[in-house]
Amino acid sequence: MMVMKMAVVSIGLLLLLLGSTSEEPVLQPQVTSECRETDVILTCNPKQAPKPPVEDDAEEHPPLPQPRRKVQKTAPKAPRGGCWARVVTVSPGPLIRVEGQPVSIRCDVKDYGGPREQDFEWMMSRDTSGPRIKIISTFDAAYSHPSFSKRVASGDISVVRLDDNEVELKIAEVKALDAGLYWCQTPSTDSVISGNYEARVQLIVIPNTLKVSPQTPPPVILEGSDLTLSCNVTRELTQPTYLSVTWSVKRGATSEEILVFGPQGDVTVGPKFARRFADGGIRLVPGRNGLFELVISRVTSSDEGIYECNGTEWTHESGGRWIKIVESFKEMGTVAVTPTDGRDIITMERSGVVISNTSLGGGQGKRGDANLEKAGSGEYRLLVRGVSGEDGGSYACRVRAFIEKGKSAGGGGRWHMATEKTSSPLLVKVEQTRTGSESQTIGSLDGQGNLLPGSLYSDRLKSGVISLTRTQPNTFKLQFLHTQEVDMGLYTCSVSVWSVNNQGNLVKVSEQQSSPLTVRWAPKRPSLKVMAKHIREASVGGATFEMSCVVSPENLGDVGYSVLIQSQESPGSNVRTIMTLSPDSVLQHGGATDPNRRDNLVLTKSSAAEFRFRLSGVQLSDRGYYWCDITAWTKQQPGQAWTKVTSAESNKIRIDFQENVFSVNRVRARISHPPHLFDDMSFYEISCLLDDLAYEVRWFFTRLRGGETTTQVASIDRFGVVKKEVRNSSSDMSVERKDANAYVLSVHGTQDSDSGRVPLRHHPLVPVGINGRLDGRGGAVLVADLPHSPLRR
């Protein structure tokens, strides 16, 4: 075979030889996609194509597939005087695809002879020196290699005919082992072997490392505010791939693209948002490390919807085509726009919880801080601090009345709104009054560099909160370490030049004042959120109750917290302060605390923003609602007094349990001698079996000869501490707890003075009637009403 350069020379010679013929041949050389490996044979004869020449090295090339005899439509005939050279081409490579994604490789054949519909065979090799593995064929169902037969049968690998001379190899989910070289081969149907019969392309498979991490936007935003949509799109760069990020909004079933950035760094805007983008209402803010932000300014109610972020990875193939190889859709969140007209400022619910809407949205930093409180019976007061021009307008009060339906003896009724009424609107105008007073001097430096503070800024300059320095001979610097809202305004710098006169005095020669510099910022209102939760719940008397209060600060710097533990028996009743903790961690008991029970109360700071309250040995009088009232404090400078910033109350935790009903299951007495009689120095014991509650058990004795006076002889409290009373007798007594619910009183060395009445009858087990109550300490006092049975000597 001749190489391409030799073919060009042969063309010129052939044209010279045929120049005198009446029919001028038309030569159409074809260039294959793999010129390095495929030779091109050009044959040209205006009348009859001769048989192809046989080269000496023909046996060195693998035999081409033999023509198939097939009755089909024939291919178009060659133009008069034309020449044929079959050309097989595939998609330009290399092809970079992502693991798990679909892959399509096209193959077509041109300038061929024989039937119009051509057949195709696909093979692959995992490296350049490896063997070719048969994948799939358009005419041979048993063509596939065993390693591909299952995937072909399942449809994971298929071949789709696009035209008579064009097919597409499809892989539904490409795998890492599919990477390699792919050949498309066409069996010959030509009468003359000419051109190339196969083409090759490389497939590169990379892992799926595309990650899309959007930040959740605010669920509610005020009309006119700015909405920032942040999305982080990254991937591990192993091949030359490119990224794009798309923001879209979904309303109902339709989704609209807002803006697309990439993959070439270009910006494409959706048709409905093009005008706003051109006007600056929508802007793109690329960040670092894959962070992209889309800012929508001055949102309206039409901007409501579900926002989505789409990250896409692309590859740039030969021919300038951009191919999408993988993409990931992530829902950012739903955004609702609250109209500024007729908006709810603040709401107090039935439970007394106040919900403020003044902190919503970016534009609310210019509005005043609203607070709603109950001033009296049926009277509520709205207080707005730090008003501005945006707080002007019509204010109205809306009241809703609720009734409880379906309430049973145990509670659990549902609340239904019965009526609603809105007051007449009250017009509020906010005017800004400007005084004609002169500007205030912050400080000055004289010619010797001495600092002369202004009267209003003297303390702040002395404490170092404000500093005025000379950094260079012609440069002076004013610095604020802790700014306040009163520091906003217009700042100017006045410089004067002085000289020494003949008498040696300083005389001002000239003075120049700089242009005013406006210093203003959007103040962020500090706020607190306090959440209370159960740690230990008291369900019976004598148990321990513990709760935790977690503080979530917003727009607060280095602050200290004071905590008030408050309670009330029922909603609407008087509020009692149990304990307090100052920002300096000084603990105090409230006026509602019983002095005898202060050891049962504990309030600690368990972490920087968590406080825990514990109440041991709860009683019936402790039932009610408990919550935390936390205030944030700050110091302008170390050593100064605390200044209150803001405060908030937590949700309420309830202590609720029923009074225990005590009972003695049975009382059993066993005497070491026959009933009613015992000797000196004998022994007897009385056993009490109780239920599974914690009790304080006491034993009493009434003398047989000494009146009806009953005295206590021994006791054991709920902690197992035994106490024996002083007795005028030589006998001894012991108390023993047999198990969790059994108590035993034993009398050792009985004497005549031990004769008396004891709670026992002639039979060992007798039913008894028991009354139960709670004493002042929350313990159980058991009183057994037993028939008296005298014990005699």
UniProtKB/TrEMBL annotation:
UniProt xrefs under InterPro entries: Ig-like_dom, Ig-like_dom_sf, Ig-like_fold, Ig_sub, Ig_V-set, IgSF_V-set/TM_domain, Immunoglobulin_dom
Keyword Isomerase appears in the UniProt entry: no
Residues of the Ig-like domain: 85-194, 207-309
First and last residue of the signal peptide: 1-23
Annotated localization: Membrane
Keyword tags: Disulfide bond, Immunoglobulin domain, Membrane, Repeat, Signal, Transmembrane, Transmembrane helix
Name the record gives this protein: (spotted green pufferfish) hypothetical protein
